# Entry
Amino acid sequence: MKRDIIAGNWKMNNNKEQTVALINELRPLVKDAKCEVVVCVPFTSIETARKALRGSNIQLGAQNVHWAPKGAFTGEISADMLAEQKVKYVIVGHSERRQYFGETNQSVNARTKAAIAAGLKVILCVGETLEERETGKTATVVTKQTLEALEGIDKLGLKKIVIAYEPVWAIGTGKTATAQDANDTIAIIRKVVRKLYGKNYARSIRIQYGGSMNPGNVKELMAMPEIDGGLIGGASLKAKDFAAVVNDR
Ligand code: PGA
# Structure
């Protein structure tokens, strides 16, 4: 049986002191969670978060990783560096990285491979823009993103991947995809996985929804058969809201 996974994406928020405060508030609130719980913190908070999470059921995540093992890549962090810090999950290909930092399906693929090789699990993000949705390109876009991100990754690698479907227009906007739309697009992504890896892998891979998920809409979204969790931005910055998403799913 696969377990749902709710991951918080803190983005560029929380210094070390705020990291400790948020984690300390969150720990008791999610201690009985039935799903997997992850917080993806800024690089500078990783060590602090690791200590604050000790003995809890919350796993440590990061928000990006470079594809090279080391070298002249100013400002980047390697997968081994994250693994050394006991990071378990890393987000790859978030739409903000694609939009502001030139991330492509090819770099997403390279980062994913490097993360897996270092023993990390990957939250691999795909999703269409508003214009793509309005012009009927959603299926084509998410299919291409998924195919190219998974290029050359074998079945063992796939087991380390969670896919997050995040329609770009729903991120941080308060607009959520309808539960039905989210479900339908995730079904398309799952079909790509089936084509590449077969039925069992398609069934067992976890695909999250992300984009303005919050305590008010989590039940409806998580009731959909294709949705196996959530990637939570804004609502993950408040312990009570994030805990409500974790516990009400
Ligand atoms: P949001 O962000 O929940 O604030 O929409 C989700 C994300 O970007 O992962």
Notes: Residues 9, 166, 171-172, 210-213, 231-235 surround 2-phosphoglycolic acid (CB under 6 Å).
